[in-house]
C-alpha cells in the first residue's frame, strides 16, 4: 500500500501528544481532516494564543494568564496558609470541583519516577519548600496519587520539611463511598482498616 506523506506527518505529530491513545490517532486525524479549513485555522490560532498567553504561577505553579493574577493565589476567600499539594492541574480541578476545600494549591508537575527519568529537580519541589519557608504556610495536604511514585514523592517532600513547623497531612485512604467490600482489592481494604477513624 502506497504511503500518504502528509497523513504520515500528521500521525507522527499526533503521536507526540501524551495521553492520546494510539488507537485514537486515526480518529483524531480524521476529525481534523474533516474540519473546514477556516475551523482548522481557528483551532491553531487558539492553541498558539494559549501557548503565548498562559504561564505557570510563580507561587503555586498552576496555570494563569501572563497579564493577570493567579485565580487561586489572589482569591480573597482562600486560606493561603493551607496548601494542597497535587501532581497536576487535573487533580487540582478535581478537588476544586468538590467545593469543599477552602485552601490553596501547589502543582508539582508530576511525580518522582527514576524509570521515566523524572527526578526531584524536574518537579516544583524547591518552589514548594521555599513557599513553606517564606509565605506563612501552616499546613500541607498531600493529594498525590496513591501510586508508588506519588507516595515516594510525598515522602521525599516530607523529609525535606522535617525541620519546619508546618503540619503535614494527606488525603484519607480506603473504601470509596457507595462501594461494596467484596469488590475491593486487598490493599484498599487494608488501608481502610489501618487508617480507620472514630465513628
The CATH C-level name of the largest domain is Alpha Beta
Average pLDDT confidence is 91
H-E order: HHHEEEHEHEHEH
Helix- and strand-based class? alpha/beta
Low-confidence stretches: none
Largest sheet: 4 strands, parallel
Coarse morphology? globular
How would you portray this structure in words?
The protein is an alpha/beta fold and 199 residues long. The protein folds into two domains: 5-55, Orthogonal Bundle (Helicase, Ruva Protein, domain 3); 63-170, Dna Topoisomerase Vi A Subunit, Chain: A, domain 2, CATH 3.40.1360. Helix content is 40%, strand content 14%. The protein contains seven helices and six strands; from the N terminus they run H-H-H-E-E-E-H-E-H-E-H-E-H. The strands form two sheets. A four-stranded parallel beta sheet has the order 4-3-5-6. A two-stranded antiparallel sheet has the order 1-2. Strand 1 (54-56) and strand 2 (63-65) form a beta hairpin. Helix 1 crosses helix 2. The longest helix has 17 residues, at 37-53. The mean pLDDT is 91.
Looking at this protein, list some descriptive labels.
single chain; 7 helices; 199 residues; 6 strands; 2 domains; globular; 4-stranded parallel sheet; Helicase, Ruva Protein, domain 3; Dna Topoisomerase Vi A Subunit, Chain: A, domain 2; alpha/beta
Offer a concise description of the structure.
The protein folds into two domains: 51 residues, Helicase, Ruva Protein, domain 3, CATH 1.10.8; 108 residues, Dna Topoisomerase Vi A Subunit, Chain: A, domain 2. It is built from seven helices and six strands.
Amino acid at each position: 500500500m502506497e504511503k500518504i506523506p502528509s497523513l504520515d506527518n500528521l500521525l507522527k505529530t499526533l503521536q507526540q501528544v501524551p495521553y492520546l491513545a494510539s488507537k485514537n490517532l486515526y480518529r483524531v486525524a480524521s476529525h481534523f481532516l474533516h474540519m473546514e479549513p477556516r475551523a482548522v485555522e481557528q483551532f491553531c490560532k487558539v492553541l498558539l494564543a494559549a501557548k503565548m498567553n498562559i504561564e505557570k504561577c510563580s507561587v503555586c505553579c498552576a496555570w494563569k494568564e501572563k497579564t493577570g493574577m493567579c485565580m487561586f493565589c489572589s482569591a480573597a476567600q482562600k486560606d493561603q496558609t493551607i496548601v494542597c499539594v497535587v501532581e497536576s492541574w487535573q487533580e487540582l480541578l478535581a478537588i476544586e470541583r468538590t467545593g469543599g476545600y477552602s485552601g490553596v494549591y501547589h502543582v508539582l508537575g508530576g511525580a518522582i519516577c527514576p524509570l521515566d527519568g523524572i527526578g526531584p529537580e524536574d518537579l516544583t519541589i524547591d518552589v514548594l519548600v521555599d513557599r513553606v519557608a517564606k509565605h506563612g504556610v501552616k499546613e500541607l495536604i498531600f493529594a498525590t496519587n496513591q501510586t508508588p511514585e506519588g507516595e515516594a514523592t510525598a515522602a521525599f517532600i516530607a523529609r525535606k520539611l522535617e525541620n519546619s513547623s508546618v503540619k503535614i497531612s494527606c488525603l484519607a485512604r480506603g473504601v470509596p463511598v457507595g462501594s461494596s467490600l467484596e469488590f475491593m482489592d486487598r490493599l484498599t481494604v487494608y488501608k481502610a482498616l489501618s487508617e480507620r477513624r472514630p465513628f
